[in-house]
Amino acid sequence: MTVNALKRQPLYAQVKLLLLQRIGAGEWQTHDALPSEWELADELGASQGTVRKALSELVDAGLLYRQQGRGTYVAPVPGDWGDDARLVTPGLFTEQPDELAREFLGLSRLNASEDIAEALQLRRLAPLLRIRQLWRRHGSPVALDDVLLPAEVFEGMDARWLRGSAGVYGTLQQRFGVRLKIVSEQFRAEMLPREEASLLGVTGMVADVPALCLLRLSADMDGRPLEWRQRYCLTHQLAYTVKHG
Amino acid sequence: MTVNALKRQPLYAQVKLLLLQRIGAGEWQTHDALPSEWELADELGASQGTVRKALSELVDAGLLYRQQGRGTYVAPVPGDWGDDARLVTPGLFTEQPDELAREFLGLSRLNASEDIAEALQLRRLAPLLRIRQLWRRHGSPVALDDVLLPAEVFEGMDARWLRGSAGVYGTLQQRFGVRLKIVSEQFRAEMLPREEASLLGVTGMVADVPALCLLRLSADMDGRPLEWRQRYCLTHQLAYTVKHG
DNA sequence: CAGTGGTCTAGACCACGCC
DNA sequence: GCGTGGTCTAGACCACTGA
């Protein structure tokens, strides 16, 4: 490597970081081809094998995909359900899931509770952005999201962006160059709280409904936690399915 | 490579498969060191880099672990909760989880329902082994497992083995040389059924309790589905936490 | 056919654990 | 100091894609 021996990081890690930054900066758009492994190797003064190792890790991380004989491409940003999670019929693991329609409900501000401040490594009562959105399947509400983001990091967030089709993760990538990665998720069964029941259209006689409550913590590629998401799912006839590695 | 060019598999894949078989056969025990990368390379007639690639994939798959400067070792078989799942306090992602005690309840036989037969790629009504076990935290029941396995594959299963500390996955590894890997999991919120409520010690006035219902499909390293597990978790004060890769 | 990713080698050097 | 895993290189060949 010509220059970048500044840090005592392995060369492939430096290459990976550099590519990560250039992808984040939008140098290549989704489904654009990167330069070939040899071109990158020349350009960065590393060998093809070293570049290949860096690219492989980015492929494993889901940021790139490869096609033999063609090239290496920028992968689309995963939607708000991630690459591996879907809502399908309980017990049927091979079922093709139906598409969910996203409905943006609102963008507001609030202050971090103690738990959330700790998880996001913020001070208590730190300002947060709250994004609410509803998921519908065949027109019926099936899930409700509360997405909490550190307000200082995402200053200038515009509700109009969130009405678009990109979802929260897509918007963060496009507007702020931040790519989130799920760190940890918690699942619980709860009786659906009143406010959420109302938003999910569960009212009247059948008000006492159990709901799947998902808590998600996500971080950027450097590991800085940036998202706390709470999702209520109606799993009366559906199951929250996660495919493993 | 000297001989093994039989299949049109890459050499590293053949090496990986060979090591997988030798590990499964018990050639090395848990925490035993494998031969060094160079020794394996000599022995198998491959280069160190090729052996390294095979080992790396086994490390990624969780079967081996490495210690720089020391060696490569056989990883312990993960417990019935997997490497990444725990029960912790909701909202606290960094909490150290308390240990769960496992209580074997029984081994019985039944015939596969349609769903299960399909998921396990068996004929309808195929015979299954059913293992029931209870999980306690600080003495209180918190989860109940029904593990269903194809009876023909695990003929000779002995209840005494399952009383031991190895758990289901440990027993399958030790007694049958089969290592399972979680393929997919489904989460739902349900009202706890009567039978499960009774086993979990939820009785009387507070009988109407929501429970987290987990459905898990696992396969061996060749991808053959071999386990259908249903788990009810009491998530009143706990959350089922999954760490992501 | 040329260009790309995918595999493999031999050899080198580094960083770490341990005696 | 020695043996281990961890990195890096240069060069080779294969398999696939698309003009």
UniProtKB/TrEMBL annotation, chains A, B:
- Span of the signal peptide: none
State any GO BP term from the record.
negative regulation of DNA-templated transcription
Q: Name one GO molecular function term.
A: DNA binding
Tell me which UniProt keywords the record has, alphabetically.
DNA-binding, Transcription, Transcription regulation
The HTH gntR-type domain covers which part of the protein? Answer: 9-77
In terms of PANTHER family, this protein maps to: MANNOSYL-D-GLYCERATE TRANSPORT/METABOLISM SYSTEM REPRESSOR MNGR-RELATED (PTHR44846), MANNOSYL-D-GLYCERATE TRANSPORT_METABOLISM SYSTEM REPRESSOR MNGR-RELATED (PTHR44846:SF1)
Name the chain's protein. Answer: GntR family transcriptional regulator
